[in-house]
Write a structure and sequence with these properties.
Strand content: under 5%
Number of helices: 9
Radius of gyration: 18 Å
Distance between the termini: 24 Å
Oligomer: single chain
Structural class: mainly alpha
Number of strands: 0
Shape: globular
Helix content: over 70%
Length: 226
């Protein structure tokens, strides 16, 4: 059973990669969104020269950019699938394989976008981060957290007529608590604080990610049958 599920996940991830390659304009559009947003922040806030008060602004702007990038990137997870393709998947793969494959693919996509965003953001606006490995860990947890939460929300929103609006409404109460912990954790890394100061946020984010994946695995089959 596990071998079959793993085979389904790998097949579905390969399918999403092929579709992403054929529709390169979607990924290029996300890169353009990241680049233009960072450049607008540079023109608007002028954070190239840092003071003691500009660190929180730098950190908050980065996470705002990553948040809207993740919503735009993951919203199409189920919305781009036509009914014929979904019916075909319904007959050949399990719903657990579909949701896990979507989560893995969206996590990989968000990791790539988060890394590109951080490198370009640090290049344009400077890099005040003192503990870079810890900051990268917060980006990793953020990418996983956004992907796990928004993938299931995208599946729910795809059942509605105005799915884009519903996606934004449903994601807000789920993402905000996670975003607050990520901002605090990354701010500790920026200030070079002892890594034990971020242990509570780290464990909480890991627990949230595991809970969301488990809930998605259990509940998605009921949504899939509808």
């Amino acid at each position: 059973m596990k071998a079959v599920l793993l085979k389904e996940i790998l097949y579905l991830i390969q399918k999403d990669l092929v579709l992403e390659w054929r529709q390169k304009y979607a990924f290029n559009g996300m890169l353009l969104y990241v680049g233009s947003t960072v450049f607008v922040c540079y023109l608007s806030f002028g954070l190239r020269q840092f003071s003691d008060d500009s660190g929180p602004i730098w950190n908050a702007l980065l996470w705002i950019i990553l948040l809207f990038t993740s919503v735009n990137a993951i919203a199409k997870s189920f919305m781009q699938e036509n009914r014929g393709r979904l019916l075909y998947f319904y007959s050949i793969v399990s719903p657990q394989g579909i949701i896990l494959a979507k989560i893995v693919y969206n996590t990989l996509l968000m990791l790539l976008l988060a890394f590109i965003c951080f490198v370009f953001y640090a290049f344009v606006l400077g890099n005040p981060v003192q503990d870079v490995p810890m900051f990268l860990l917060s980006l990793l947890l953020g990418a996983i957290g956004f992907s796990t939460s928004l993938t299931m929300i995208s599946a729910i929103a795809s059942k509605a007529a105005n799915s884009s609006t519903l996606m934004a409404i449903l994601s807000f109460p789920v993402i905000v608590p996670m975003l607050l912990m990520l901002i605090k954790m990354s701010k500790n890394a920026m200030d070079g604080l002892d890594r034990g100061a971020s242990l509570d946020e780290l464990l909480t984010l890991l627990a949230i990610n595991m809970i969301v994946i488990t809930v998605s695995y259990i509940l998605f089959p009921y949504l899939w049958r509808s």
